[in-house]
UniProtKB/TrEMBL annotation:
<protein>
    <submittedName>
        <fullName>Smr protein/MutS2</fullName>
    </submittedName>
</protein>
<dbReference type="InterPro" id="IPR002625">
    <property type="entry name" value="Smr_dom"/>
</dbReference>
<feature type="compositionally biased region" description="Basic and acidic residues">
    <location>
        <begin position="1"/>
        <end position="10"/>
    </location>
</feature>
<feature type="domain" description="Smr">
    <location>
        <begin position="134"/>
        <end position="218"/>
    </location>
</feature>
<dbReference type="InterPro" id="IPR036063">
    <property type="entry name" value="Smr_dom_sf"/>
</dbReference>
<dbReference type="Pfam" id="PF01713">
    <property type="entry name" value="Smr"/>
</dbReference>
<feature type="compositionally biased region" description="Pro residues">
    <location>
        <begin position="25"/>
        <end position="35"/>
    </location>
</feature>
<feature type="region of interest" description="Disordered">
    <location>
        <begin position="1"/>
        <end position="84"/>
    </location>
</feature>
Amino acid sequence: MDDNKPFEKLKKIKIAPKQAKQAPKPKPQPAPAPEVEPDEGAMFCSAMGGVQPIKGRSGRDLTKTPPPAPETLQPAGEQTGEAAAKEQLRRLVAGEQEFDLEFTDEFLQGHVRGLDERTLRQLMAGALSVEAHLDLHGCNAEQAMDSVLFFVRESYLMGRRVVLIVTGRGLNSPGGLGVLRQETQTWLTRDPLKRVVLAFCTAQPRHGGAGAIYVLLRKRKKSEGKVKFDRTSFWGD
């Protein structure tokens, strides 16, 4: 080997190619946790945590309130005491009281609504004392009307409570019908007499039976307004 050529040896030496530096392997990533839906209740509580209620106002109650029970109107027949008596009297004086009527060929009966049943039974049984009577035999319709109007008016003003009107049975009338008997019922239930009449019915046989009528008048009080007895009220307009 020639010592004067030192680089000749270097040419014969094989240098291994320089290897590229390998990047470090990435660390495995943990599996993502499953998504959990947020708790709406917790979120609401969290959001409202610092809210203070307004003083003097309460929250709205969303529960359904049952509708109020309808007001029960007490029937007039069930009213008791002084208030009921005053109301009935007011209706009588004003001519507003209606009559319940029942009649056949041999029987008739009428009374203002709300009248005490015991009093009506006593009247029908003839148990109430008759204080005066009017006999219409021999009268035509117009004469009978004037007589009934005058008789009832005088009886009411004198404080009588039960009177008797004898109409006759009308057996000799056309068809055997008692015209005056039917007319008397009409007069008693029409102004002005209906303002003072409480009830009427066919009399017991000892007082004339089907040819006579018991009439129950209301009690007159001086503090009440006057009842106008007008003959033309019977005829209407």
